[in-house]
Protein: Methyltransferase domain-containing protein
Amino acid sequence: MMQSFWDKRYTENESVYGVLPNAYFKNFIDTTAPGTILLPAEGEGRNAIYAASKGWQVDAFDYSKVAQQKALEAANAQGLHINYAVKDIDAFKATKQYDAVALIFVHLPRALRLSFHAEVYKSIKSGGFLVLEAFAKEQLHKNSGGPKDAAMLYDVPSLCSDFNWMQMLHCEQKKLMLDEGEFHKGEAELIRFTAQRL
Structure:
């Protein structure tokens, strides 16, 4: 979607996806020793701020300047530091390696997804982790969030193929109740995926 769409959404809503971290991401942070982490398409910063509060060194980016401003203001209000850039996903290159990368509802067209996921893999250190939550194909006709384009929804085999050089630690598709702000609310078909680079 265009940058103007997201700038408008972030401007018109006090909190688009809530202020609490994504539950799957929170569980990873709570059970993993702090290190460096990258959060692409981070929006208003709910996950970045939570990771920083637990001692992680956080790099994040989004292509919405409004989202960046809201995230930095929220982090500053809590006395936390996050590095947050304004950047397009299609311009992302793995110039740095991290202990973890988290992709939380980062939905992309297939060609961009493949190239971006290849760069994400390169950006994970040996022994580092990928944490991903996204809407499954079966989410298409639900009103609890996600793209209304089947090509931008995911399935487990595709994700496993994208990251086939990593060891799968957890991978499942399941129905869950979402309660993440006004735009992620209700029963949803989700994929939860954690892998480690060997």
User: Anything to note?
Assistant: The mean pLDDT is 93.
